[in-house]
Design goal:
Blueprint: E1 3-5, H1 11-14, E2 49-59, E3 68-70, E4 73-77, E5 82-87, E6 93-98, E7 115-117, E8 120-124, E9 129-134, E10 140-145, E11 152-153, E12 159-161, E13 164-171, E14 188-193, E15 199-204, E16 210-214, E17 220-223, E18 234-236, E19 241-245, E20 259-264, E21 270-275, H2 297-300, E22 313-317, E23 320-326, E24 331-336, E25 342-347, E26 367-368, E27 373-376, E28 384-388, E29 395-400, E30 427-429, E31 432-436, E32 441-446, E33 452-457, E34 461-463, E35 469-471, E36 483-485, E37 488-493, E38 504-511
Antiparallel strand pairs: 1-6, 2-38, 3-4, 4-5, 5-6, 7-8, 8-9, 9-10, 11-13, 12-13, 13-14, 14-15, 16-17, 18-19, 19-20, 20-21, 22-23, 23-24, 24-25, 26-27, 27-28, 28-29, 30-31, 31-32, 32-33, 34-35, 36-37, 37-38
Length: 512
């Protein structure tokens, strides 16, 4: 099966406009700011209502592919291994594509947000495959495996620039257990030709792992490894420089772990790099009470899991171009975009050593509206939303997570699973900041004051336009960020924890 065509996307709709949200980052510089939005504002956001819901057919699976909107078409991937194009205003079907027609593994599931450019839709899957579909029909243009490793996957959302598409590769190999020969994965960033899928360059973030003995179980031990690229890249079109953050080592210590990379977008050559953590080696065994030699970093305090999993923001202050990025340590770092020199740093989230699943800091990204940076902290007792001065990092306002998040709405049904945390990347539009939470609620904040203007609890029962019934859950992860386009707001609800695990998850669309 290539694609099931139930409607169509016109050629005019495939050309993007300022009001579109055509890539996870919103634009090349990663603003996540819907600058052209004029229908929804701070005065009328209280009138925002659910317009339609789409319910995924598979029960209990996580939904984590943030949608994009071009014209009146919304594009998104589902936990059922399908990729969808639907009418952005009504949810009516246009086409769908079955990933298992290409990748026959059990990880043929979109884990990233797509990018639409030049009449094509680009996205990856949890099995390390990358796809280009015809934006009008859903027909496969090309596909290729970019993972190189059996456990590689794509959480990074692609970005398109001057005939190339750029995307990072990560993996879950560090969750493989004590009997596994850990670890041989090498994180990397890939540049592909948009028309053919040919790999133009590949930048590895860690040297080739070498066997250095065995683990206590007798399994082979390899070092160094890991340094996945979980986050999504951004590009400064003035200089052709690509910026992207990296993760921690799985074993050993080496390579560009916990680093912001500045690469030549055309060649992949390093322009500069800034490593923000001195040592960080973490695997799942580090969370066990007695890891028996499987986590050497516990002894010296370097089992941190302090990835740069967030996408950078490029912005100008005066005559100086800067690039900033959040880290799971809770620090937002700002560098000179040309040299990599540190301009300022601000500790926003409260870090937790040996973080494991990243219960700390800044997770997926921030937003910049030309005036303020909007940065959300995750499990920081509680998580908070910040507005920060881009020139010096001064906090302009701080709004702690609403204290009743776990005691009201659907989250109150399972309070032991709920905590006051912001996992998604922040989104902004004129006068507003949008942020979702572990408590299953999507909120709109006043961008000038930080006051909460609108709240919607997604942990409730929905009947989808596709005929299924489902229930929302945590708003979190790669698919959790709100998308604002053409007078509508879209969000995926269905990450972990699953408050009602035996139900289908949902994509929700709101309008005035």
């Amino acid at each position: 099966m290539v694609a099931t065509l139930t409607g169509s996307v016109s050629e005019a709709e495939q050309s993007t406009s300022d009001g579109d949200w055509a890539t996870w980052q919103k634009d090349l510089v990663g603003s996540r700011y819907a600058s052209a939005e004029h229908r929804i504002n701070a005065h009328n956001v209280k009138n925002l209502k659910l317009k339609w819901a789409f319910v995924y057919p598979e029960i209990g699976a996580m939904s984590r592919s943030e949608p994009v909107v071009v014209g009146n078409t919304i594009y998104f991937g589902g936990p059922d291994g399908k990729f969808y194009a639907r009418d952005a205003n009504t949810g009516a079907a246009k086409w769908e594509f079955d990933l298992t027609s290409v990748n026959h593994g059990d990880r043929a599931v979109p884990w990233d947000g797509p990018a639409v450019s030049g009449g094509k839709v680009f996205f990856g899957d949890a099995g390390g495959y990358f796809y280009a579909l015809d934006a009008r029909t859903g027909a496969l243009k090309w596909s290729t495996s970019i993972g190189e490793h059996p456990q590689a996957g794509v959480t990074s959302s692609p970005i398109v620039y001057e005939g190339r598409v750029y995307v990072g590769v990560s993996s879950l190999e560090n969750l493989s257990g004590q009997d596994y020969p850990c670890c041989t994965f090498r994180g990397h960033l890939v540049s592909l030709d948009v028309n053919t899928g040919e790999v133009k360059w590949r930048y590895y973030t860690v040297p080739e792992p070498q066997q250095v003995g065995t683990w206590p179980s007798g399994a082979a031990k390899y070092e160094p490894s890991g340094v996945g690229v979980w986050s999504s890249p951004v590009i400064d079109p003035r200089t052709g420089t690509l910026y992207v953050g990296t993760g921690q080592n799985y074993t050993g210590s080496g390579g560009d772990f916990d680093t912001l990379l500045a690469l030549d977008a055309r060649t992949g050559g390093v322009r500069w790099k800034n490593q923000v953590t001195k040592a960080d080696t973490w695997r799942a065994e580090c969370t066990q009470p007695d890891p028996n030699g499987y986590c050497p970093g516990l002894a010296d305090g370097t089992a941190l899991d302090y990835d740069i999993s967030a996408t950078p923001n490029i912005f100008r202050v005066g005559d100086r171009m800067l690039v900033g990025v959040g880290q799971k340590s809770g620090v937002y770092h700002v560098f000179d975009a040309r040299t990599g020199e540190v301009v300022w740093r601000r500790q926003l989230g409260v870090p937790q050593g040996n973080g494991g699943s990243g219960v700390q800091g800044i997770q997926w990204g921030s937003s910049y509206d030309g005036k303020r940076l909007y940065i959300a902290s995750y499990h920081a007792d509680p998580g908070s939303l910040f507005a920060v001065n881009p020139a010096n990092g001064d906090v302009l306002w701080q709004t702690p997570h609403p204290a009743d998040g776990c005691t009201t709405g659907g989250a109150a049904q399972n309070p032991g699973a709920c905590y006051l945390a912001h996992g998604p990347a922040a989104t902004s539009s004129p006068g507003l900041v949008w942020e979702g939470s572990n408590d299953g609620k999507l909120r709109a904040y006043d961008s000038a004051t930080g006051s909460v203007l609108w709240t919607y609890d997604t942990i409730r029962t929905f009947t989808g336009v596709n005929g299924f019934e489902g229930v929302g859950s945590t708003i979190n992860g790669t698919g959790g960020g709100a998308v604002v386009a053409h007078g509508m707001v879209y969000v995926q609800s269905g990450y972990l924890p699953a408050y009602v695990p035996d139900k289908r998850r949902v994509l929700l669309a709101f309008g005035i």
